[in-house]
Amino acid sequence: MKGNERRETFTAHTRIQRSFSRHAPDGCVPRVGTDRDDHARGRHGSDDRTAVPVPVRQSRAESPSQRARPPTPSASLSPSTPALLPRPRPCAMALPRVGLLLAVAACLACALGRRADAAPKELKVGYYAKTCPGAEYVVREAMARALAREARCVASVMRLQFHDCFVNGCDGSVLMDATPTMPGEKEALSNINSLRSFEVVDQVKAAVEEHCPGVVSCADIIIMASRDAVVLTGGPHWDVKLGREDSLTASQEDSDNIMPSPRANATALIRLFAGLGLSVMDLVALSGSHSIGEARCFSIMFRLYNQSGSGRPDPHLDPAYRATLDALCPLTGDQNVSAGMDATPVIFDNQYFKDLVALRGFLNSDQTLFSDNPFTRAMVERFSRDQDAFFRAFADGMVKMGDLQNPRKGEIRANCRVANGSPLRSRTRPRRSGCSTSDSSPLGPVGGCLTSALMSPESDRYV
After folding, report:
1. Segment 4-59, tens digit of pLDDT
2. How far apart are CA 266 and CA 38, in angstroms?
3. Which residues are catalytic?
4. Strand 124-125, strand 241-242: pairing
């Protein structure tokens, strides 16, 4: 190549590289190699065309336009989001002697891949208005049928939102069955032999698929069904933001690491919620989900007979209420017997908070909100007096919790229990019966394991 031609080629490559520096995201600048570049790296014109990762450095002679790059996708996220989003991956690579088209393709693929992994989905009210009109009505009708079969069903479905959203965002991962290569979240300590009503979600999904196949995600079904569980039992209505995708995998390990112990005190629970961008008011209001549903005697045996290893009952129990629980759950009795978590277990109201003030909280982690922390105690007292305030705070908390997202690219599952294309896809079919606990792991309870009293009031994993 003649000298002039070589200088022109080098100049053209330099202009292209500077152009990408101006427009590509940070960390995504291709390096277009030339003989001169090879020589500078000690390559001496080697014909080795393997791309070698190299650090991207800013030129000291950059112009202001080169320094003014578009903000990364995470720049506009809410304060709660960074706890869930991974750091953007570096995307620089060297492309020695690669054609310009390959350089362009590499950079675009790099940028698009990075955005798909880091940018959250845009959630909005009425997301399915055009693609699946009437979807929310279909979900409400299916939940009403489930409620008519068994009142406890809808309370169980509502709690799926807590277990789903707290572990890597609201992505429907809690619904996935385990596979030989993927331990599912159903087998996590906070869920095994505790979460139930997965078949109700199957039924809702089947109704939605019949209405508009392949459009509505299982993650969004949990969000809609949880709202409807509250409304159908007398609680507040709120608009739900939709548009989530379903995860491709589930993580038992993440669930074990994130979900709290049932013996966690109020301070520990405050810290957990704060890490997800949820306030003390959110913690107390969302604990009011225990206004509906039941829990088993197994969940409170330690409170009745061996609180904190003392060999005595929990001192924060009203004596008359403790006598009632002793009769319901004798030490040698059937620990599968269940009871309501407040005095009105089929009605969503503020009775739950009135019971905490009266030291009649069924679960230890509920009573701690009144008995062990002045900040949560003030909220409990307020909600016990003002049901409207509780309803507003609960609705706000559910919306905030629903904003927790998984940044990874997902899909719209055809079967909520398995990823699309899985060989197990047709193994599980929606049941026609009502709620049951048969969705739990066949391994049974594991002695000594802890679960989440806050999120799993029906847990049988207490020690």
Report:
1. 544 444 444 444 344 434 444 444 444 434 443 444 444 343 333 333 333 333 43
2. 62
3. 163
4. antiparallel
